[in-house]
UniProtKB/TrEMBL annotation:
Pfam families: DUF6325
Lineage: Bacteria, Bacillati, Actinomycetota, Actinomycetes, Propionibacteriales
InterPro entries, alphabetized: DUF6325 (IPR046288), Integrin_alpha_N (IPR028994)
Designated name of the protein: DUF1269 domain-containing protein
Entries under SUPFAM superfamilies matching the protein: Integrin alpha N-terminal domain
Length: 145
């Protein structure tokens, strides 16, 4: 990687049961990108057929309702997501579902991470805690308190 400030890079696999995508989440993705909060490195879509077959979907295939122009993401590819990654994402899907696979940079954190690196520190781990787990832990803490 060059000397440009980079924020932590993460990924999301978002399943759409029954392959029903409304586009609402993608509107928010556009807004996050336009505000500079994140930078989309890769955006891909996969589908798992009822028979378990996994296939990639072209972004153009998803833009049928006229409400959201997904062309803004067409070509959003750093080539960091490969066929194996998409197959892996498809493996976790329920048959008959589709998923968006997003690889993104947390631009908001780039200055913070760069400052840490300049001081000799390195980011060695990151992760997400599912919201259901947070709610469960907060409920348990409230019940115990």
């Amino acid at each position: 990687m060059d000397e440009v400030e980079w924020g932590p890079v993460g990924y999301l696999v978002v399943e759409y049961p029954g392959a029903k995508m409304t586009g609402e989440g993608l509107r928010e993705l556009v807004a996050l990108t336009e505000r500079g909060t994140i930078r989309v490195l890769d955006l891909a879509f996969v589908m798992k057929g009822e028979d378990g077959t996994i296939s990639a979907l072209a972004i153009a295939d998803l833009d049928g309702d006229g409400e959201l122009d997904l062309a803004v993401f067409e070509g959003a590819s750093s080539d960091l997501l490969g066929e194996d990654d998409l197959r892996e994402a498809g493996d976790v899907l329920t048959p008959g579902s589709a998923a968006a696979v997003l690889l993104y940079e947390n631009r908001w954190a780039a200055p913070f991470v760069s400052a840490l690196r300049r001081s000799g520190a390195e980011l060695v781990a990151a992760g997400f805690i599912p919201l259901d787990d947070i709610a469960e832990a907060l409920d348990a803490a409230e019940a115990a308190g």
